[in-house]
Amino acid sequence: MKSICVYCGSRKGESEKYAESAKLLAAELVKSDIALVYGGGDIGLMGVMADEVLRLGGEVTGVIPKDLLDLEVGHQGLTRLHIVKDMHERKAMMMDLSDGFIALPGGLGTLEELFEVLTWSQLRYHAKPVGLFNAHGFFDKLLAYMQHTVDEGFVRPIHADLLMVEMEPAALLRRFREFKKRS
């Protein structure tokens, strides 16, 4: 695993615990010599994540659409910053640059990116691990909904199981490495 795409909020949330969780994941990525790929912003958990990876000596690649560059205050201190045409190009490039995907707490954009990459895994458009860092139980209700989709027959258990869920970043990265060995 050379690089992992992290989807997370352009806001920090109501509690500092989410920023601390982003820093924990950043530290684990650097410790594992895994580069960060993310949405290129300098605000919210996105900025916290990028800044911490850089502070610890890691590599960070941001991908941001031109029209969001000013709105999201694009990060100017990254290892690489790709400015792209639109959100579709952003997500495609982030996928191409990454060996796996992790979602941290975030809003609608985070959920959209997570479910798109999970759907692509289901459809076998890629064979890369997809995970949730369920920091402080943030995704518990989403996971309950996911189980509901299985219980009601809309999602097969094998497809729901494509989403790896852990409360600790080290455990999630361990599962990613095991996934890659099997692939």
If you had to describe this structure to a student in words, what would you say it looks like?
With 183 residues, the protein is of the alpha/beta class. It has one domain: Rossmann fold (3-Layer(aba) Sandwich). It is 48% helix and 17% strand. It has eight helices and seven strands. The protein has a seven-stranded parallel beta sheet, with helices on both faces. The longest helix has 16 residues, at 16-31. It is globular, with a radius of gyration of 15 Å.
Radius of gyration: 15 Å
CATH class: Alpha Beta
Largest sheet: 7 strands, parallel
Q: What is the number of beta strands?
A: 7
Low-confidence stretches: none
What is the share of helical residues? 40-55%
Outline, from the CA principal axes? Answer: globular
The number of helical segments is: 8
Question: Would you give the CATH topology?
Answer: Rossmann fold
In oligomeric terms, what are we looking at? single chain
Quickly give the CATH architecture: 3-Layer(aba) Sandwich
- Would you list the SSEs in sequence order as H and E? EHEHEHEHEHEHHEH
Give the terminus-to-terminus CA distance.
Answer: 12 Å
Widest β-sheet, arrangement of strands:
4-3-2-1-5-6-7
Q: Structural class, from secondary structure content?
A: alpha/beta
**Percent of residues in beta strands?**
15-25%
Number of domains in the coordinates? 1
The average pLDDT score comes to 96
What secondary-structure arrangement, pairings included, does this model have?
Blueprint: E1 3-7, H1 16-31, E2 35-38, H2 44-55, E3 60-65, H3 66-69, E4 80-84, H4 87-97, E5 101-103, H5 108-122, E6 130-133, H6 140-151, H7 157-160, E7 163-166, H8 169-182
Parallel strand pairs: 1-2, 1-5, 2-3, 3-4, 5-6, 6-7
